[in-house]
């Protein structure tokens, strides 16, 4: 009690935020966990069924497909999207003129609302011969492509849209890290006659390593929760080839009216995100030690 009395003013300042946090986050979270163990009529509990809802979700072929697809989203985001901000930051660090212009241009996609960006890329990927990209291909004599109608390429193409939207902010984080590197390292390297690639390889990249580890885990957590891009651009198609775990929760609850399965899958996703968040804390701690 003496601890609370000593910090009474601080607790009073935090109280409204804590009340809102409990009301809008913790109560719905605990309510969802509770619902996942019951047979439901709408949102009304009928009977306790233990882990039956979880077993039903795990047996659902759509869950298995969504789980695999979410792994593919993460994989392609690392292959396609992760190196892009690093490369852009390295290029920007070497730019002398118009640096502010390039930074602003890179960050602009981040201020575009997510749904508007998804609709923009859906328009670009229009599979009709008169679609934007197919029109460009037709201008150079190439045949139209199915784009988002292709089960093989639908996830990589959605990841391209995700990368376009988010790469600018990540690039600025990498650029800030590069600019915090002691300039004497580069001056000494130039006096030793090193070229740009050698300075990047032996000074810049090792200094970026802690930030790279931290942002890699953060990106995996973010892409694991991909929802509205496949929801808007493909609806999960073709033939569930782009269905994600969060989109499957949406289907369970708002399309099928199966709240119990949606609650169970929500808990499964939350546990996976807790594990990933623990990895993020570990990476942040290591980055702090190396910083």
From TrEMBL:
It is a multi-pass membrane protein. The keyword Repeat does not apply. PROSITE patterns: ABC_TM1. The chain crosses the membrane at residues 7-27, 73-92, 104-124, 153-176, 208-228, 259-283. InterPro entries: MetI-like (IPR000515), MetI-like_sf (IPR035906), UgpAE/MalFG_permease (IPR050809). Residues 67-280 form the ABC transmembrane type-1 domain. It comes from the Bacteria. It is found in: Cell membrane. Keywords: Cell membrane, Membrane, Transmembrane, Transmembrane helix, Transport. The keyword Membrane applies. Belongs to the binding-protein-dependent transport system permease family. This is Sugar ABC transporter permease. The lineage of its organism: Bacteria, Bacillati, Bacillota, Limnochordia, Limnochordales.
């Amino acid at each position: 009690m003496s601890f609370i009395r000593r910090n009474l003013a601080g607790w009073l300042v935090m109280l409204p935020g804590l009340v809102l946090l409990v009301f809008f986050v913790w109560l719905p979270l605990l309510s969802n966990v509770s619902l996942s163990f019951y047979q439901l009529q709408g949102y009304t509990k009928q009977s306790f069924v233990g882990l039956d809802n979880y077993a039903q979700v795990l047996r659902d072929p759509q869950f298995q497909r969504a789980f695999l697809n979410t792994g593919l989203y993460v994989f392609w985001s690392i292959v396609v999207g992760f190196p892009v901000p690093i490369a852009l930051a390295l290029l920007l660090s070497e730019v002398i003129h118009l640096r502010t212009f390039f930074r602003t241009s890179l960050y602009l996609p981040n201020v575009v609302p997510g749904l508007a960006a998804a609709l923009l890329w859906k328009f670009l990927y229009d599979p009709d011969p008169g679609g934007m990209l197919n029109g460009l291909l037709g201008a150079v004599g190439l045949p139209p492509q199915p784009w988002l109608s292709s089960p093989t390429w639908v996830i990589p193409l959605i990841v391209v849209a995700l990368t376009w939207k988010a790469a600018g902010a990540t690039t600025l984080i990498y650029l800030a890290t590069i600019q915090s590197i002691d300039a004497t390292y580069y001056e000494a390297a130039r006096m030793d006659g090193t070229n740009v690639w050698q300075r990047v390889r032996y000074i810049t990249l090792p200094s970026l390593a802690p930030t790279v580890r931290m942002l890699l885990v953060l990106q995996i957590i973010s892409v694991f929760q991909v929802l509205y891009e496949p929801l808007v651009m493909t609806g999960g198609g073709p033939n569930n080839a782009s269905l994600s775990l969060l989109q499957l929760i949406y289907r369970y609850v708002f399309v099928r009216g199966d709240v119990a399965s949606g609650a169970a899958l929500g808990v499964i996703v939350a546990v996976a995100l807790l594990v990933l968040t623990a990895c993020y804390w570990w990476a942040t701690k290591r980055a702090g030690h190396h910083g």
